[in-house]
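Report of the visiting student (M.T.), summer placement. My assignment was to run the structure pipeline on a short list of targets and document each run. The first record concerns DUF488 family protein.
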Amino acid sequence: MIQCKRVYAAVDAADGRRVLVDRLWPRGCSKAALQLHAWLREVAPSAALRRQLHERPQAFAEFRQAYRRELAGHPEHWQGLLELAGQGTLTLLFAARDDAHNNARVLAEFLEEELDRRGPPGSPVCYAGEDGGRGPRG
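After the run finished, the structure tokens were exported:
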């Protein structure tokens, strides 16, 4: 499960792994208070894109498309988040005031779609016993 939360909200045991996904450190927050698993600056939108959203919040749809293109171009920045999400709850932390229109929401949506696209693991162990106990066919 992937969820999003403002860095200023109280830490909760249900947060699971907490990852800050902003390029800049949030004002007034100490590293100890955030109780982070990681700070992934590189997964945040580029500086130019971040400025664009700040200057034109009404153009969120445009920001969303551009940020998704950035993410698609750099899977090395978000691959580890998929692993964390597969292990339990992953909370993406953000500092933006707008709870609905921010980079963490776009990233969460992107990651959920990537998890859905990949589907369940296809390990041979998963198929053990599917032959009804008949053994190898010959």
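The chain has one domain: 2-120. The helical segments are 31-34, 47-55, 60-73, 75-87, 103-118. I thank the supervising group for their guidance throughout the placement.
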